[in-house]
Amino acid sequence: MDSSLYETIRTENIDRLRQIVSDDDLLLQMTPLRNTTLHVAVQFNKKLCVEEICDRCPSLVMQPNLKGDTPLHIAATLGSSDIVAILIHRAQICHQLDVERGGGSGGGAGGERSSTTTVQQLVRNTNKAKDTALHEAVRYHNRFFSKVVKLLTEADPAFEYSANSNGETPLYLAAKEGLYEFVVQILETCPSSAYGGPGRRTALHAAILSNNSGTRNACARGLVHIKMRP
To answer: How far from 205 is each of 9, 149, 161, CA to CA, in Å?
Structure first.
């Protein structure tokens, strides 16, 4: 990626981006780590640039970098709820346009339509460590991340959120860190979410063994209470 384009995005020079930068440059230029212009805009939390690039190059929403991270992974890692919402909304628009054209979402062989929507594909994408965006949001949590977790889980409530390459599910990570609010959000919104962890441990084991004594008991009670509902 040439330095002028990088600086245009980093400084959110939206007028230059709209008037001078070509669609081909937005679509094709990458950093050495294969971050696209959309990855860069997300990394710097430049909302206007994210919207502009999504409008002109919607395919970049799903494109991974060298580590397999999509722009949604980056936004979730940073806790950028506004950008997470933009990316999910863009995927919804892409799916609707695809349906209107009669293409379905990610049509398979013989013209068959995929059973998953574009939004589901986006949320379910895993990087090379088999982390979804929800894994990243839980792992890098702080007080701003609850909205990100809510957006991701509500975008695809049917997904099971299985384990990453370390054997950790998002629910396990949340329980391990004593994140009661995240545990409840995942269980309430994604009731099929997997709860396993490494070494045959479960999210309940993780909650009980958590170093966060302030929320350890609340997490354990929440896991038992919600999982035992009829």
So the answer is: 45, 22, 18
